[in-house]
Input
Amino acid sequence: MDMESRKNGRDKRIRKNRIIKKHLILMLGVFVVFLTGGCRQKEELPFLAFSVYEQKTARMAALIGDVLSMAREDGYSIEWRSGDGSIEKQKADIRELIGRKPEYLIVVPIQTLGLGEVLEEAREQGIKIIFLDGMVDQEEFKDYLTVIRPDARWEGEECAKLLGAYFGGTEAKILEIQGIAGNSQAQLRSVGFRNQLCEYPNLELTGAVQGDFDRVTAGSNLQNFVEKSGSFDGIFCSSDEEGIGVLSVIGTAKGTEVCPIVSVNGQQDVKKALMAGYYLGSVESSPYLGQELSSIIRRDMAGEEVEKETLLRGVMYTEENAKEMQGY
Amino acid sequence: MNIRKEGVQRKIFVVFAAFAAAMVLVFGGVTAGYLLVNEVRETKESLMTDLTAISDQFERQTRTVYQIGKTVSENREIQKALKRPSGSMEERYWNDIFFSSELLYISKYFDENISVYVLGENGSLFKSGYLSFCQENYSGEEWYQTIRREKDVTWFDIHMGSRVAVSPENQYISMGIPMNDLETNRFLGVVLVELKVDDIFAEYGKDRKEKLYMMHADHEMVIEDSRVKFYGAEKLVDMNGGIQVYEDKKDCPAYMQETAGQIRYWQRDFPSQSSFGTMGYYASYARMKTTEWILVYVIRKRELYEGVILTAVLSLLAMMGMLAATLRFSFFVSDSLTKPIRLLRESAAEIALGNLEVQVPRVSNDEIGELSDQFNRMVGSLKELLKRVYEEQEKQRAYELMLLQAQINPHFLYNTLGSLQWLIRMNQLAAAEKMTTALTHFFKTGLNNGKDIIRLREELENVESYLTIQQLRYKSKLTFFVYMEKDVEELEVPKLILQPLVENALYHGIKPKEEGGFIDIHICKEEGRVHISVADDGCGMDRLSLESLREGISKGEVSRGDSYGLKNVDERLRLFFKGSYDMKIESSPGLGTSVNIYFNVSKAGSKTADRRQNVQNSDCG
Output
């Protein structure tokens, strides 16, 4: 009896200990869940600083709007500044934004050169730099997180191909309206266009004038070119803004022979011109980069490695498919 | 009448400090007062100036907006384009491009913050700016209908983002004009002119303590950090960041509601621009002519006076600093002026105490410096003079001592030799021999190898020789007794100090007494002093003679015939012992006379050494 009662007592103690252990493990688990949950609640989303070199054009308005929408949808707080077309203003903007201690600094650079110093200041403070819709010279600054931009070289090539197809084997003089001097996208488009143009021996690059991504500047400089020398048969513009400026100068009367204009961007005014039959084509260079940006930031925050460069390609729009054009 | 003793430094310090402090306080007070008044006035003027500038700029731009709107609405080409029925899409789009280019070239001459939009009933959409339309038809919009209903212009308050274009998050005010056919008055569409106002408010509103309001008849709005908040009649609409948040009006700051109340109360009866203040705030306002909006800068008085208080505190600190510097400077000036005088005074006090080694340092090169030099020269001269006087006195003392000693010997020798002569004549050869022996011993001890200082033991031996000689002369008429304590035997004294006293006792006390007398010489130590007593039981002196003798000795006026030896001894001992020596003479007629000499034991020893040194020095010199 004694042996049996002792065995029963020992079994009871073992069961009791097991129950206590289970409860302890359960409580520990709840505590860990509570802690991790609490930590997640306390996790703060990054603060983004956003610097653009201008805000007056439709493309930049769309780009700014898209980035701000993305930031708000993802719950980030964001501050943005416009350089109003001045590199000095953009540098000052970036310095001011650095002072707000963001986690990410998103820059739409006006030029490839000139921003290195302020970007270095940002990097020294541990701010991650993302270039959007353009980049700066690698010699000047290369410690950026990533660059998200349209494939400007491809865009230039597409424009040259469209002009080549338009003129067939006919000889023609082509005028180039260049974007902002020193802007990476303008440079790459020009390189792509000129390289591709070499494939068409009948097409001669008769000249290049500055357009500064601005319709008024492009229109004025074209007028000067015409008055001084020149005849031309087709025009390549680095941006739709320049294309519209050129169109307002040369296409003043409906019914006259249309001078083929090709450009890059795909904005609303060009869509109208395409549909009206006064424009040869426009390579879409989407300003809606917010989604890519959001993805990059999310992945970087998760500790994933992000690619150094993301190149985006759009669609070539002509009169035929103009209705499908989004036309921001 | 008691005159309170005040130092020169204190007087100079008080006068200088009081004058300087008064100047500082008056100057500081006037300056601080001027600054305070000026600060408030300048702040208020600055408020009004800035408000005038912003309202003028706003006014200019709204006037421009109005003029552009009017010009475009009356433009015949645009009217013509809007009168056309909706043609083909191709034609409409071309018109849009063409007239947009026209508007762009028109707007080039205006402020770049102004954008013009023409929204035709026939679907035409013209724009002067670069931004794209956000939709293809706006006729259903409430604001469009509002413009259509009004015959003249309609002003729309600040709103976030363009009403018609895809724009970044900027703030605009806008004006709409119905575009009616100039000939038929048929409604053709609307002209909407938008003015981007961020830059204006950023320029005038950012980083300022003042709040910038824009008020309208129905509601008011505040611009904070260049962002706009609207306050409706019942609720608050926060347009900050483009997100509308409805809040209770009670959340609106009280001072702002009060300002709005004041402005609304006055409505159009108040001047176009002015300032007013109430308990808690100060406001400057300006009413714009074009829109009848009112721009108001409101600043809490507490913030308005922050600068004033800062100025006051800084002024006070500056005054306190100047005051402290003034007091320090006053002290420095008074100290530097009186320091040489103090040094002179302290030096004079040292000299008064007998210290002639004092030198006053020259601390300046002015008259006081010269005075210091003259003082030092004076002290030097005085020191030299005293030295000379001392040396003269020393020489005089030495001379007198030599003279006194010289006076004793001939006097005694004459008498003794006479007695000796008489003893030889009388053939009393043993007595003559004894006298000769005593005389020889007397002179031997008297000469003392040429030394002036002698031990008491030797002096006593000398006087015993003398008394022996005199006893031989006066036979039974003279008896004497000599006693000296052992421990004073070696003390040193000037030689021949007892002999004149004994001589006086003999000649003036014993000799006149017919039955002769007794001379008692007693030398002992009493209470640390040496006591030498030479007493006789001779005829003594009456009181008058005794007083005369005492007076004569104390004044040094004793004649040669009257106890010249006593005076001689007194002067020599006084010279030798200075202050530690006393001589007392007691006498009674018929009972005798006693002369008591007292001097300090230690004084005797040390003085002896000094004297020896002096004698050796003089010997050398």
